[in-house]
C-alpha cells in the first residue's frame, strides 16, 4: 500500500466516524426535563429555573419544588413522576404525575387540581409557591447539551452548568494565588542567594547551617511545613506580641484575605522555595569558569564587585529556565494552602464541589492553573533552546552559518602576484 493510499484510507475512516457520530446525535432521544422555579422569589439566584433531567423511571417532587430520585422523608413528598413504557414497537414512552395520598398540599395541573394525570410537553404543575414545568427531551443537535448533562461521567466532571456557576467564584480567587506566588518567589531569590553563598563559604560555621537547612527543607513535605507555620507560629509569644502591637495584621487585606494569613503564606512558601533556589544558584555560580573571577580581580574589582557585576549576571542567564520551572512548581504548590483555610482557587473549588456534589469546579480551577503553567512551560522550553544555541550546545537547528561553503576552482580569484613555490607543496 502506497503512502497516498494510506492517507486516503485514514481520511475515509475519519469521515466515516464523523458520519456515525452525526447520525447518533440526530437520532438519539434526549432525556425529558422538568423546570422548577419559585414564583415568589425576589433574589436572582432563586428566580432562575432549576433544570432536572429525567434519567430514571421515577422521581419525587417535594414541598419546595425539588425533584429527587429518592426521598427519605415520606411526609415531604407531594407528587411522583412516573415513566409509562411505550406501547408497541413504534410508540414512545410518556410520563404521568401521581399526587401522594399522605400530603395535604394541593397540586394544580395547568390551573386545575389534579390527583393523577398523564403529562405532555408544556404542562405546568403548581405546588405552593413553586412552579414545575414538564418538557419533552429535544432531538438532534439541539439536544446535545441535555445528552451531555444527563451522562453520569460528563455531568460529574465536565458539567457546563456547574462550570458556569463556579467560574466567577474561582476567578475572584485567581489573583490571590498569583499574588502569593509572586511575593513568595520574590522573597525566595535573595534568601536562596544568601544560602548559596553560605554553602560555598570556606568556613564550616557558615557552610554547615546552610547545608542542614537545605537538607531539612528539601527532605520534608511542603504540606507539613505549611501546617507547622500556620498552626505553630501563632502560638509563639513573639508572634502574639507582634499581632497585638500591629492591629492591621488581623484586618482584611487585598481580596478580602486576612493579613496574617498572607504573612504566614509568604513565609512558608518563601522559606521552602529558598532551599531549592539555593541549590539552583550554587550550581549556576560554580558553572562559571574560575577565570572569570580571576579576570575581574585583575581589573581591580573586589570579590563582592566581581560577584555582583561579573559572576551573578552570567549565572542568572544560565539558570533562568530552571528558575522559571521553580516558579511554576511554587505556583502549583499554592493549592496546598487550601488545607489551612486560605481562600485561594483550590479552596473555592472545594467549597463549590461540596455544595453541588460535583467535581467540575476542580476542573475549572485546574484550567486557571493551566492558563499560567502552560505558557510559562513553553517559554522555558524556548528559552532553553535559545540558550543552548547561544552556548553552542546544539540545542536546536543546525548552525549552518558557521559551516564554510566549499569553493570550486572556477570561483577562485587568481592572485596578481602569486607566491612562487619550489620543491612542491609544503606540508
Summarize the structure in short.
This protein has two domains: 27-150, Tumour Suppressor Smad4; 163-396, MetI-like fold (Orthogonal Bundle), CATH 1.10.3720.10. The protein has 13 helices and eleven strands. It has helices spanning 3-27, 44-47, 144-150, 152-157, 160-199, 204-219, 222-232, 237-245, 259-287, 290-298, 303-333, 345-356, 360-390, and strands at 33-38, 50-53, 58-62, 67-68, 77-84, 94-99, 107-109, 112-113, 116-119, 124-127, 130-135.
Could you give the topology of this structure?
Blueprint (H helix, E strand, L loop, with lengths): L2 H25 L5 E6 L5 H4 L2 E4 L4 E5 L4 E2 L8 E8 L9 E6 L7 E3 L2 E2 L2 E4 L4 E4 L2 E6 L8 H7 L1 H6 L2 H40 L4 H16 L2 H11 L4 H9 L13 H29 L2 H9 L4 H31 L11 H12 L3 H31 L37
Antiparallel strand pairs: 1-2, 1-11, 3-4, 3-5, 5-6, 6-9, 7-8, 7-10, 10-11
Helix pairs in contact: 5-6, 5-9, 5-12, 5-13, 6-9, 7-9, 9-11, 10-11, 11-13, 12-13
Q: What is Rg?
A: 35 Å
Please, how many helices? Answer: 13
CATH domain class of the largest domain = Mainly Alpha
Overall number of strands: 11
**Structural class by SSE content:** alpha+beta
Strand order of the largest sheet: 2-1-11-10-7-8
Fraction of residues in H or I helices: 40-55%
User: What oligomeric arrangement do these chains adopt?
Assistant: single chain
Architecture overview:
This protein is α+β, with helices and mostly antiparallel strands. It folds into two domains: 27-150, Tumour Suppressor Smad4 (Sandwich), CATH 2.60.200; 163-396, MetI-like (MetI-like fold), CATH 1.10.3720. The chain has 13 helices and eleven strands. The chain has helices spanning 3-27, 44-47, 144-150, 152-157, 160-199, 204-219, 222-232, 237-245, 259-287, 290-298, 303-333, 345-356, 360-390, and strands at residues 33-38, 50-53, 58-62, 67-68, 77-84, 94-99, 107-109, 112-113, 116-119, 124-127, 130-135. Helix 5 runs antiparallel to helix 6 (204-219). The two termini are 57 Å apart.
Amino acid at each position: 500500500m502506497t503512502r497516498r493510499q494510506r492517507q486516503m484510507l485514514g481520511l475515509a475512516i475519519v469521515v466515516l466516524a464523523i458520519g456515525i457520530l452525526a447520525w447518533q446525535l440526530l437520532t438519539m432521544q434526549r432525556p425529558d426535563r422538568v423546570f422548577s422555579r419559585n414564583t415568589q422569589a425576589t433574589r436572582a439566584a432563586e428566580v432562575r429555573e432549576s433544570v432536572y433531567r429525567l434519567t430514571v423511571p421515577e422521581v419525587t417532587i417535594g414541598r419546595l419544588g425539588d425533584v429527587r430520585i429518592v426521598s427519605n422523608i415520606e411526609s415531604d413528598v407531594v407528587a411522583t413522576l412516573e415513566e409509562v413504557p411505550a406501547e408497541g414497537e413504534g410508540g414512545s414512552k410518556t410520563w404521568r404525575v401521581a399526587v401522594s395520598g399522605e400530603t395535604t398540599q394541593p397540586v394544580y395541573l395547568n390551573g386545575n387540581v389534579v390527583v393523577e394525570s398523564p403529562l405532555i410537553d408544556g404542562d405546568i404543575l403548581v405546588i405552593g409557591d413553586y412552579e414545575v414545568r414538564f418538557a419533552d427531551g429535544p432531538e438532534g443537535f439541539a439536544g446535545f447539551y441535555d445528552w451531555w448533562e444527563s451522562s453520569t461521567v460528563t455531568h460529574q466532571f465536565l458539567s457546563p452548568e456547574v462550570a458556569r456557576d463556579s467560574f466567577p467564584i474561582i476567578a475572584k480567587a485567581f489573583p490571590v494565588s498569583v499574588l502569593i506566588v509572586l511575593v513568595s518567589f520574590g522573597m525566595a531569590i535573595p534568601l536562596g542567594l544568601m544560602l548559596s553563598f553560605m554553602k560555598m563559604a570556606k568556613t564550616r560555621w557558615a557552610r554547615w547551617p546552610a547545608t542542614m537547612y537545605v537538607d531539612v527543607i528539601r527532605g520534608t513535605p511542603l504540606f507539613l511545613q505549611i501546617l507547622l507555620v500556620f498552626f505553630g507560629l501563632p502560638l509563639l509569644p513573639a508572634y502574639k506580641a507582634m499581632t497585638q502591637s500591629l492591629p492591621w495584621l488581623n484586618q482584611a487585606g487585598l481580596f478580602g484575605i486576612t493579613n496574617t494569613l498572607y504573612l504566614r503564606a509568604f513565609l512558608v512558601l518563601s522559606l521552602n522555595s529558598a532551599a531549592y533556589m539555593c541549590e539552583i544558584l550554587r550550581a549556576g555560580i560554580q558553572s562559571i569558569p574560575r577565570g572569570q573571577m580571576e579576570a575581574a580581580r585583575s581589573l581591580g574589582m573586589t570579590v563582592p564587585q566581581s560577584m555582583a557585576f561579573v559572576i551573578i549576571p552570567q549565572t542568572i542567564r544560565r539558570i533562568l529556565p530552571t528558575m522559571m520551572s521553580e516558579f511554576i512548581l511554587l505556583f502549583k504548590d499554592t493549592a496546598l494552602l487550601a488545607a489551612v483555610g486560605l481562600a485561594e482557587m483550590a479552596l473555592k473549588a472545594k467549597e463549590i464541589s461540596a455544595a453541588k456534589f460535583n467535581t467540575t469546579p476542580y476542573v475549572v480551577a485546574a484550567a486557571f492553573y493551566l492558563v499560567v503553567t502552560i505558557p510559562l512551560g513553553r517559554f522555558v522550553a524556548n528559552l532553553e533552546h535559545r540558550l543552548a544555541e547561544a552556548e553552542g550546545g546544539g540545542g536546536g537547528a543546525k548552525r549552518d552559518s558557521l559551516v564554510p561553503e566549499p569553493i570550486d576552482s572556477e570561483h577562485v580569484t587568481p592572485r596578481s602576484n602569486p607566491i612562487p613555490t619550489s620543491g612542491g607543496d609544503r606540508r
